[in-house]
Amino acid sequence: MTVSLSRRNLLAAGLAVPLVSRTPATRSGPSRLRLPGPTGPYPVGTVNLHLADRSRAYRGRVRELMASVWYPAHRTWSYPLAPWMDAAPFRLLLESAGFDPDAALAPRTAGHTGAPVHPSGVRMPVVVFSHAAHDHRSQNTIVVQELASHGYIVVTVDHTYDAFSQFPDGRVIVPGEGPVMLPPDFADDVGFVLDQLEVVARGHNPDIDHRPLPAGLGAALDLKRIGMFGHSKGGTATALLMDRDRRVRAGLILDGPMESNPPPLADLDRPVMLMTAAFTRAEAPPVAAFWSHLHGWRLNIRVEGALHPSYTDYQVLITELAPIVGLSTEDVQGWIGTLDPGRAVQIQRAYPLAFFDLHLRGRRDGHLLDGPSRVFPEVKFLP
User: Fold this and answer.
1) pLDDT tens digits for 216-232?
2) What PANTHER family has UniProt attached to this entry (predicted)?
3) Which residues, other chains included, contact 214 with Cβ-Cβ below 8 Å and sequence gap of 6+?
4) In total, how many domains does the chain have?
5) Whole-model pTM?
6) CA-to-CA distance for 111 and 40, rounded, in angstroms?
7) pLDDT tens for residues 250-297?
8) Pairing state of beta strands 81-83 and 165-166?
9) CATH number, domain with residue 125
């Protein structure tokens, strides 16, 4: 079972989701939502890639994917900030959740489109991200740009036919318009994206529209230090890809249900961290079974008051949207639980960074992953 902003998926998970008025509050024009920026020392750059996996075809079409690369940048002042999501798919995303599609504008991110890569002189670890079912590659931008601001190159991918995605020629594809995408399909997508990063590292450009890459990108990729994280179905895909592809050295799973055929039950000796909410080991047997096959470093935490969307940008964006569309406090809690959005942002910044710093850089900044923290008392360590 996988869950996204789509109301039908939240209902399928048994979460209380109010159906609200589709009429926005009276105002001069749609408000722009806001997303908190990153805290690292580097400004952030980003670039989109239009990729084609010619080894796979669906309904007579080569599998096309949209991906975004996020990275430490410099000299960013002349490069525009990228939107969280293109306008057309954002309107459809709002509509899928039961909101007025014109209720708000997508936030801007901290990513400067096309800015040159920071010339650090050393290669940087790479992290890839896989989104939830019926969602999109921007859903965890808070985590993505936080990692990039601390010296990581992060690659996000839209899983076409299970994502709200727009291609450079204007085509918009929404979930359900093509074949059903399963967790192994998500894992195949990410494996293909890793192959394309190898092309970039060799000095070539895999973008099928031949749009230029940011200066310095290929030389900055350290493909010997690759991590992956995913939310919900993307978390299950993270486990599946770790089983089949040893290029992925560490995996962070954000409330993944671990439901797949075949299931992710191979013995893994590489580090895995679970941040669970709806799909705990106590309540989801597939998660417990997956946990039993982890024979390397492993950690399971759960944040009090969190629901399934709480480890994504929706914890902030639903709160931003609430006064615009007339959501009550109870309505908001039905969507995102009782975890304070500001605290959720701090947790999303701190724990993924600590995990990848430890396992891709060998860097331990404090004892955040060693046990309960006075700084984050709502984060519970599960034995």
Assistant:
1) 999 999 999 999 999 99
2) PLATELET-ACTIVATING FACTOR ACETYLHYDROLASE
3) 45, 47, 69, 71, 73, 114, 115, 116, 117
4) 1
5) 0.94
6) 13
7) 999 999 999 999 999 999 999 999 999 999 999 999 999 999 999 999
8) unpaired
9) 3.40.50.1820
